[in-house]
Amino acid sequence: MIHVGIYPPPYGGVSVHLKRLLERLERAGIDSVLFDVSGTPKRRSGVVNLSWATAIARLVLMRKSVVHFHNFSPRNTLYFWLLSFRHRTVITLHNDWFLEELEAHGWLLRMVAGRLLNGVDRIVVVSHHARLLADLVIRDPARIELIPGFLRPETVPPLDSPAVQQLRARHRFILASTAFRLAFHRGEDLYGLDLLVDLMRRLVFGRRIDTALVFLLPAVGIPQYLSEIRQKIERERLSDRILFLTQPLADGTSLWRVSDLVIRATNTDGNSLTVMEALTEGVPVIASDCVDRPEGTLLFRTRDADDLEARVVEVLTNLEEHRRRVAELGSFDTGSRMMDLYHQLGVGPRC
Question: What is the pLDDT of residues 291-325, one digit of tens each?
Fold first, then answer.
């Protein structure tokens, strides 16, 4: 089978998911290849570096297969539809804002794209809310599969960061968060970095709680905004308590393991890999209520700094209780469900 998407780097929820999915397919004895359309060259068996246009041309010429697209865009729906005449096709909508993307291009494209999507064999959505949105576009509900995109890593290397280790040794509590790259959504900081800086000021100087924050940022995205945030951190006298990790980690789970609390302060989201990784490791998670969150996640009102502060203080005050609560959660791994879908479409292990 063939996947079309991104293999890390760049590091983000979708690319890490695809990396783990390829590994899972290999262990299951299923022949697969990933057409990496990121534009960043990779050297990895089973990963082919192609432009989007070249990937389409290659797929047109290849013999019938199962093709799983992980790069949804309204403008790509024509190609998804055309290729469905030659291949069994699957699209994963890795976030909840695909309907917004359709609407942003006007009613005509939304109508055309919606009709084209109905020609795809399966649409995979990652949350209940995304399922409701997909129901507005896809006529046949049997074509929609709800499968959160979390595959637990087989191994996690130790965190190789002296800076984090020093921070861990100096402070009582370590908070952690991450962003694929800095971005804005509806005019607001998508990942809530501004909220986290304000939270740190409140915790350290208002609540007198000995706290530090590690923010994983493998791609800056908006250098000017990061510069403004750094200036704010300096003004608030938090420079020795907020650490940016700007080099990708082999696996983000290594950071969650050394943290006391993981915060997901986004104002929109998809199937947050961060949340499920942290919960799987027994680390409490506080996340905004902008989308559905996995069982066990503690929610705060999106963009509400007061509510975020109250939730964080409650967790840090009762940390052992929350650790025990999270440790009792079941597995979030959905690898078997993804394999079942592929088997339904005719994918099997090699002989």
Answer: 889 999 999 999 999 999 999 999 999 999 999 99
